[in-house]
Design a protein that fits this description.
Oligomer: single chain
CATH topology of the largest domain: Rossmann fold
Order of helices and strands: HEEHEHEHHEHHEEEEEEEEEEEEEE
CATH architecture of the largest domain: 3-Layer(aba) Sandwich
Structural class: alpha+beta
Number of helices: 7
Largest sheet: 5 strands, mixed
Number of domains: 3
Helix content: 10-25%
Distance between the termini: 66 Å
Length: about 450
């Protein structure tokens, strides 16, 4: 996925031929030769890697300097493209810089920050830096060696020991910037390749091909192999998290990722509302939380940075906090329910001047039994001594059905039956009451059982 300088040249070079791949149309990306970029839309092409390799798809994207003011559409289309066109995932995010790029500027930080916001921190595990138009002929190589020597002489803090090369120095410089400016985790090392996108290795003109020096062809093979091996070194990146945000979220519509939250009583609940203000400043105005139609929290007027200290809402047990991203991309407001109970069930909305997003909060309850009723009157007043046929009495208890995925009751029924009549109905152990009055002979025969009806 190219996003910076020389991306169209680079994409065309990697897919020089289209042979035997499942694609209905193959069109080389437009390449700009003036101040204005020609990469003004998000497009992709399918072809064989380096002309004869496996079939690959390359997404060609523009940078924010190329969007001609329509940044929101660009971000929306980028996320939508990954959601719908590349459901199997992306093997590598190729961050392209021109070889002359010598500093990590604010524009670069902002664009990479937006990518991280869309794709999440794990985006970096699939990222690779590529410097294009990096000539590997003898003269260019000598020039970079001399430039590195000047840098080392001017800055003694640089690591310029044995084994240091201009390529390694550039790699370390960019990874230091990723960690310092974008807080990429220390354990993540973003690999770097240096590919000359206009090297005529595939030219149909033999004279041009003969101009390629062995050093150049060797470097081209080395770095294109490293790119391919990295792309296949781990499972593809799958679009999740913010990448699944509705398209309106990128133009300021609030978005609650948790559409349905179901919790047992006593458990805590967290809802987050994300609002992108990067492309629509008024999206931060009048941001509210509602339960049903009732406003339960109003965010303060938009400052540069919100405090993350929780603030109480209009209901006991509710608290709220906000924070803004370091790059000013937007606001994240968090609603927290300390202990779930029936009063917190319902529809919650996060609303601003643009639109609103809703989430349903429900309480999960297991099946439970109510209290037993009184015993019914015995079906017989007394037992005939000759037949010995007992009567029966029964009682029942109601059950409350499980809610929202709760567990069923373990017992199979709520009916209890026992033999009767007894000499003392309040004491089943008092013995069976016979009509002849010889009650003591059957003392202790009473029983109580559970039956299924």
């Amino acid at each position: 996925m190219g996003s910076y300088y020389g991306n169209s040249d680079f994409a065309n070079e990697q897919e020089y031929l289209d042979s035997g791949c499942d694609v209905t149309e193959k069109r080389p990306f437009s390449v700009g030769h003036s101040v204005d970029s020609h990469t003004t839309t998000i497009s992709y092409m399918v072809g064989r890697y380096l002309g004869t390799g496996a079939c690959v798809a390359i997404i060609d994207t523009q940078g924010f300097a190329d969007t001609r003011g329509d940044d929101a559409r660009y971000v929306r289309d980028l996320a939508r493209s990954l959601q719908h066109n590349f459901e199997d995932g992306v093997n590598v995010f190729l961050l392209l810089f021109k070889s002359t790029a010598n500093r990590f500027n604010q524009w670069t930080q902002e664009q990479l920050g937006i990518y991280e916001t869309i794709f999440g921190k794990k985006f970096w595990k699939h990222a690779m830096t590529a410097f294009t138009f990096w000539r590997h002929n003898a003269m260019s190589h000598l020039g970079r060696e001399q430039l590195m020597g000047h840098k080392c002489a001017e800055d003694p803090s640089l690591d310029c020991g044995d084994g240091m090369t201009p390529e390694l120095m550039k790699h370390e410089e960019w990874n230091d910037a990723y960690r310092e400016k974008l807080e990429v985790a220390e354990g993540i090392e973003v690999p770097t390749v240096f590919i000359d996108a206009v090297l005529p290795v595939f030219s149909s003109n033999e004279a041009y091909r003969n101009l390629v020096e062995p050093r150049e062809s060797g470097a081209f093979e080395k770095y294109t192999t490293e790119l391919w091996e990295f792309a296949n070194s781990q499972p593809p990146f799958k679009c999740d998290g913010n990448c699944k945000a509705p398209s309106g979220a990128y133009v300021g519509e609030p978005w609650i990722p948790q559409e349905n939250v179901i919790k047992y009583k006593g458990k805590n609940v967290t809802l987050t509302c994300q609002v992108w203000t990067r492309f629509n400043r008024r999206a931060g105005n009048n941001l509210q939380w509602l339960q049903g139609d009732k406003i339960i929290y109003q965010l303060p007027a938009l400052p540069q940075y919100y405090s993350t200290i929780p603030k109480a809402g209009s209901l006991p047990g509710l608290s709220f906090s906000e924070e803004t991203s370091d790059l000013g991309l937007g606001i994240t407001s968090t609603l927290f329910i300390e202990s779930m109970d029936a009063e917190f069930e319902g529809t919650y909305s996060c609303k601003n001047d643009v639109s609103q997003s809703k989430a349903q909060v429900l309480m999960r309850e297991d099946c439970r039994w109510g209290e037993w009723s009184e015993w019914s009157r015995c079906s017989k007043d007394c037992v005939d001594e000759n037949s010995g046929q007992l009567g029966f009495a029964k009682r029942s208890r109601p059950s409350v059905a499980p809610r929202n995925g709760g567990r069923d009751c373990e017992e199979i029924d709520g009916i209890d039956v026992r033999n009767c009549p007894h000499q003392d109905e309040a004491d089943p152990a008092s013995g069976i009451k016979f009509c002849s009055g010889k009650n003591s002979l059957m003392k202790g025969m009473a029983s109580s059982i559970i039956i299924s009806t």
